[in-house]
Amino acid sequence: MRKNEMALVTGASAGIGEDIARDLARRGFNLYLVARRGDRLQALADELTREHQIQALVHTQDLSTPGACDELLAALEEERVSVDVLVNNAGFGSFCPTMEADPERERAMVRILFQFPVDLTRALVPGMLERGHGQILQVASTASFQPSPGYGMYAASKAAILSWSNVLHFELRGTGVTCTTLCPGPTATEFGEISGHISNRLQDATKMSSEAVARTGVQAMLQGRATVIPGFANKLGALLSTRMPRWVVVPLVARVLRGSQ
Ligand SMILES: NC(=O)c1ccc[n+]([C@@H]2O[C@H](COP(=O)([O-])OP(=O)(O)OC[C@H]3O[C@@H](n4cnc5c(N)ncnc54)[C@H](OP(=O)(O)O)[C@@H]3O)[C@@H](O)[C@H]2O)c1
Predict the structure, then answer these.
(1) What is the widest separation between alpha-carbon atoms in the chain?
(2) What do you get for the CA distance between the two ends of the chain, in Å?
(3) Would you tell me the crossing angle of helices 152-171 and 103-110 to the nearest 10 degrees?
(4) CA-to-CA distance for 114 and 55, rounded, in angstroms?
(5) Quick one: average pLDDT of 126-150?
(6) Fewest CB within a 10 Å sphere: which of 102, 111, 185, 250?
(7) Whether the CB of 36 sits within 6 Å of ligand 1
(8) For a pocket test of ligand 1, which of 42, 189, 206, 215 has the largest count of ligand atoms closer than 8 A to its C-beta?
């Protein structure tokens, strides 16, 4: 049990982030839950406080805006919250051919999937180093390994956060602070509906539950691993994507993703 330690989870109002928060609460962590839908966060905080005798604070904020990191850091300072575990999970995708995508939505996506987690991690790691312990979990994707037609900017942002986080993991070795990257494949959450992507039978068949993905991610983070890919099919897909030439991978991914569009 990890009593009296504080875990900050972004995107805790739904899907993988909500299940990561549940998993951490079961392990005794106090929680700082962040997303835009405050009603959902509050309901989760009330439930987990009651069931696990932990403390859970709620912070409602849009994390895709240019000043999002400073705003969140100011709230943490005001509430005197010191973060032992940081889970950068919040995000969304948008399934659309690159040149038809709304540029502002694309910029917001890069901010929430890459710039925001980088800024927040950079701001919180020094405190963790001073205290001699801390754990970071970055939620990337199997798209980190695959340029993905329709998910061009999404996959590029996920590739960037995986690369940056793997470097951080290496550079932090021996400090007591670790950085783990979770790379889920298709997972049963609100993600598909929000991104406007209708999955096909192959994707539906390999979809994992967000509980299973969350458990794999939290376990890997607590073990201090660099990268974890939940599920055999996702591991195989990621491995093949890195072994095959890109002129093979890109049309293959396009075909798989086209599905029932
Ligand atoms: N589901 C999949 O197939 C899949 C696969 C690989 C990776 N992932 C990654 O897993 C992470 C979680 O996604 P999910 O599948 O759990 O999707 P989800 O069910 O749609 O949950 C997304 C979470 O992110 C929050 N969020 C979205 N935009 C936000 C914003 N602008 N500001 C603050 N919070 C925001 C949402 O909260 P509010 O709407 O309340 O703000 C929600 O809590 C994402 O990084 C996603 O890229 C998902």
Answers:
(1) 53
(2) 46
(3) 20
(4) 29
(5) 98
(6) 102
(7) yes
(8) 189
pTM of the model: 0.97
Instruction: Give 261's pLDDT tier (boundaries 50, 70, 90).
Output: low
Residue 71 CA to ligand 1 center (angstroms) comes to 20
Q: Is residue 35 part of a domain?
A: yes
What is the per-residue pLDDT across 110-126, written as a single tens digit (0 to 9) for each?
999 999 999 999 999 99
Q: What is the pLDDT of residues 61-111, one digit of tens each?
A: 999 999 999 999 999 999 999 999 999 999 999 999 999 999 999 999 999
CATH number assigned to the domain comprising residue 89 = 3.40.50.720
Q: Cβ(141) to ligand 1 under 6 A?
A: yes
Instruction: Give the tens place of pLDDT for each residue, 192-251.
Output: 999 999 888 878 888 999 999 999 999 999 999 999 999 999 999 999 999 999 999 999
Q: Is 90 in the pocket of ligand 1 (CB under 6 A)?
A: yes
Full residue range of the structural domain in which residue 49 is found: 6-258
Q: What is the number of structural domains in the chain?
A: 1
The DSSP annotation for 108-165 comes to HHHIIIIIHHHHHHHHHHHHHHHHT-EEEEEE--GGGGS--TT-HHHHHHHHHHHHHH
How many CB atoms lie under 10 A from the CB of residue 215?
A: 17
Angle between helices 210-223 and 15-26 (to 10 degrees): 50
On whether residue 1 sits in a domain, the answer given is no
